[in-house]
């Protein structure tokens, strides 16, 4: 895969990786990352897709990985910028600069939740939401919900106050995040309506009313975040699209823990990767 730079509408530069399949079948996938996960985490899976004939784009949201400023304290980015600006920049790059359409959008967690902000959705033929879920902490099973409660109500505000940004590495939750991104994420996850309040302010309705691209919501059976309650609840935000739900029962494929992010680990190439590919 080759490094490329994507310019968002506000001029922000996003770091990305583009892979073109040699046996190009005219299929293209954009992988949109989970929160605090940099693009390189998906590299092995992307290369697997390329061998199967897919063109693939990976990119870092502003504030994450190689799209982060040297000083995270200086970042003024918000989480909603990832959907409104960065995801649209990635889609526009593939359509306008590279010339690909009929794109499959594979959104992991927040990367699926924010697809409703895509403007040129006519160029997206389907969305795979992987482990995308309504993130309210109270809908998680015990004891994890109490750990997440501690993170949102006590730990994260203290860390932001001390360091001036979200030191997620210290709590084992991926890459560090700019202050506003972490605090907006926290605000959403403390609400039973999740980001509905923000959508109401942005669209004057708490839904992605105009989004009509077919969605397949895939979740992993041992993920406490995207679970039997929270994964189906994402459908309420997309009332005007064909919405399917598919649960992957991991015990049929492996005795290993998979969870929220594990499906992209190379050890699942012969099992879970093929299962996911069938849904694309």
UniProtKB/TrEMBL annotation:
Record-linked Gene3D superfamilies: alpha/beta hydrolase
Signal peptide positions (record): none
InterPro entries for this protein: AB_hydrolase_fold, Hydrolase_4, UCP037442_abhydr
Presence of keyword Secreted: no
UniProtKB keywords: Hydrolase
UniProt-recorded Gene Ontology molecular function terms: hydrolase activity
Boundaries of every Serine aminopeptidase S33 domain copy: 38-154
Keyword Hydrolase: yes
Name of protein: Alpha/beta fold hydrolase
Organism of origin: Emticicia agri
């Amino acid at each position: 895969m080759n490094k490329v730079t994507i310019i968002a509408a506000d001029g922000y530069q996003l770091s990305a990786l583009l892979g073109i399949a040699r046996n190009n079948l005219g299929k293209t996938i954009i992988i949109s990352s989970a929160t605090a996960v940099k693009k390189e985490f998906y590299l092995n899976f992307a290369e697997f897709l390329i061998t199967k004939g897919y063109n693939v784009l990976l990119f870092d949201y502003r504030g994450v990985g190689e799209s982060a400023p040297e000083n995270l304290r200086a970042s003024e980015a918000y989480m909603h910028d990832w959907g409104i600006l960065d995801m649209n920049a990635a889609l526009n790059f593939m359509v306008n600069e590279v010339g690909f359409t009929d794109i499959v959008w594979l959104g992991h967690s927040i990367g699926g939740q924010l697809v409703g902000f895509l403007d040129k959705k006519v160029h997206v033929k389907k969305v795979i939401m992987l482990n995308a879920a309504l993130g309210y902490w109270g809908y998680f099973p015990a004891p994890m919900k109490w750990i997440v409660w501690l993170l949102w109500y006590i730990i994260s505000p203290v860390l932001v106050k001390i360091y001036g940004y979200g030191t997620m590495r210290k709590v084992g939750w991926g890459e560090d995040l700019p202050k506003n991104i972490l605090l907006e994420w926290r605000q959403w996850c403390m609400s039973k309506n999740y980001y509905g309040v923000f959508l109401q302010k942005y669209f004057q309705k708490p839904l992605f009313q105009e989004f009509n691209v077919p969605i397949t919501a895939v979740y992993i059976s041992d993920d406490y975040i995207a679970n039997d309650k929270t994964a189906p609840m994402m459908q309420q935000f997309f009332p005007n699209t064909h919405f399917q739900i598919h649960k992957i029962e991991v015990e049929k494929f492996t005795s290993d823990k998979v969870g929220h992010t594990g499906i992209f680990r190379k050890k699942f190439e012969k099992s879970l990767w093929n299962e996911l590919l069938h849904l694309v």
